[in-house]
Specification:
Keywords: Cell membrane, Disulfide bond, Glycoprotein, Ion channel, Ion transport, Ligand-gated ion channel, Membrane, Transmembrane, Transmembrane helix, Transport. Belongs to the P2X receptor family. With 259 residues, this protein is α+β, with helices and mostly antiparallel strands. The protein has a three-stranded mixed beta sheet with strand order 8-7-11. A hairpin with a 5-residue loop joins strand 1 and strand 2. Helix 4 packs across helix 5.
Length: 259
């Protein structure tokens, strides 16, 4: 193990317990402390050789990927209204999806997105993001008023940057001609797209409208009572309000005349 890994530095075999992993290292300790060079000794490890190379790429390996397209097909269903809708345009032209590209103004019904356009809509440039990878969030929002024709229920797309670095490793294992187990380890950089769908729908109904109207009327009635209570008993000028709201009538004694 490299002496740059602190947990691998040793002076004797006792510093390298058998089976313990090297913290932030590349393998499992064998129990031996060996000379790494003339000045350092490190723990011998069981591991794949050579160790991973951390050299970063200087330019995107597949710059042409900015012109790749992504086809996003999405179907929503509002069970309460028994309404379903797909984001793809209903057309009899078999070449439509091969030739169209999404544009928020000129072609909003096309679900085919160019990778470069999606990255730029998230506020980044493809060259910068493709170098070390990144993650783009794609949000599809359905906001439908079902009192209008179904054709007016259309999705709205938005894009946001979630992470400026994204990579993962994958390995393939095989036996060589000498029956030794080998592997090819690849560290892959790329752009990840996370798609989320949100939506709401509404439709006029006389029963909920009547209930809401009645609730509103009752609320206004209750509000009047509450205001009166506050003004009559809690306000500093309650006496004045009493005199303005109520008229006091005083009656004299009742006389009976005898004939």
């Amino acid at each position: 193990q490299s002496p740059s890994v602190l947990d691998a530095v040793c002076t004797e075999d006792a510093d390298c317990p058998v089976g313990n992993p090297v913290v932030r290292g590349n393998g499992i300790k064998t129990g031996k402390c060996v000379m790494f060079n003339t000045t350092h000794s490190t723990c011998e490890i069981y591991g794949w050789c050579p160790v991973e190379n951390n050299t970063l790429p200087r330019k995107p390996l597949l710059a042409e990927a900015e012109n790749f397209t992504l086809f996003i097909k999405n179907t929503i269903h509002f069970t309460k209204f028994n309404f379903s809708k797909c984001n793809t345009l209903q057309t009899s032209d078999p070449t439509y999806f091969k030739n169209c590209t999404y544009d928020p103004f000129f072609n909003p019904s096309c679900p085919v997105f160019r990778v470069r356009d999606m990255v730029e809509a998230a506020g980044e440039t493809f060259g910068d993001l493709a170098l070390l990878g990144g993650s783009i969030g794609v949000r599809i929002k359905w906001d439908c008023d079902l009192d209008h024709p179904a054709a007016r229920c259309q999705p709205q797309y938005s894009f946001s940057l979630q992470d400026r670095r994204y990579n993962f490793r994958t390995a393939s294992y095989y036996w060589d001609s000498q029956r030794r187990l080998c592997r090819n380890l690849l560290k892959l950089y790329g752009i990840r797209f996370d798609i989320s769908v949100h939506g709401q729908a509404g439709k006029f109904s006389i029963i909920p409208a009547a209930v809401s109207f009645g609730t509103g009327i009752a609320f206004f009635g209750a509000a009047t009572v509450v205001c009166d209570l506050v003004l009559l008993y809690l306000d500093a000028k309650a006496d004045f309000y009493w005199k303005e709201k109520f008229e006091e009538v005083r009656m004299g004694p009742l006389w009976r005349d005898e004939v």
